[in-house]
Amino acid sequence: MSFDVSADAYGRFMGRFSERLAVPFVAWSQVRPGLTALDVGCGPGALTAHLVEALGADNVRAIDPSPSFVAAARERFPGMDIQQSSAASIPLPDNAVDRSMAQLVVNFMPDPIAGLREMARVTRPGGLVAACVWDLGPRGRAPISLLWKAVHDLDSTSSGEASMPGTREGQLAMLAEDAGLTEIQDGELTVSAPFLDFEDWWEPYTRGVGPAGQYIAGLDDAGRKRLRDRCRELLPDRPFEISATAWCVRGSA
């Protein structure tokens, strides 16, 4: 899935979580000085920034299918190798990097197994392929889980994003195994982000980002108001924090 939105809209919608998630994800992926890394589905550069900090810009490459995100990432990291491409066809030779990483991307891949297999192809033998995806299962631990709960309260036929690949416990590990990775380990990463008030939380959803934003954009005014009111019932109108947990996996190429 290509996000046809501005980098600013995505940043408002998910950036405050993805920027925080990148820190433990880099550690989970065993990134250390002297290695090279590929950021698959880099978006505006949340994970890329931490990889550059750890490895230096010359040792980091990034791809994303969205032209607006590629442009934003290139502006943020001038001169870095950032290309418009999907995970299904990474424009790198075999054994090109030590780490191939996908943060909050696998669930949007049209064919996650093929994407992970392609990530393994460009990773040197003994290198790691790593991925993380929000927990959109029944425990409701994703940043967007409360929104989808409110949607379901009003429309029980909506499945939200819970059926997307990798969003349930154990699924990422199974995808990694099917992609041919070895020495697979999985776990979870948790971060939290602050919100000033309900409006600070709600406004990013009105920007049409991802399945949640597109769902809201497809509602009529009355439906949007009902959903907004239901969300307001579930959240305080004062400063609060939301914790979010992502499933993570790593395996040897």
UniProtKB/TrEMBL annotation:
GO terms for biological process: methylation. Its EC number is 2.1.1.-. Residues 38-130 form the Methyltransferase type domain. CDD domains: AdoMet_MTases. Pfam families: Methyltransf_11 (PF08241). The keyword Disulfide bond does not apply. Keywords: Methyltransferase, Transferase. InterPro entries: Methyltransf_11, Methyltransf_Superfamily, SAM-dependent_MTases_sf. One of its GO terms (molecular function) is methyltransferase activity. Coiled coil: none annotated. SUPFAM superfamilies: S-adenosyl-L-methionine-dependent methyltransferases. PANTHER family: METHYLTRANSFERASE (PTHR42912), METHYLTRANSFERASE TYPE 11 DOMAIN-CONTAINING PROTEIN (PTHR42912:SF95). This is Class I SAM-dependent methyltransferase. It comes from Flexivirga alba.
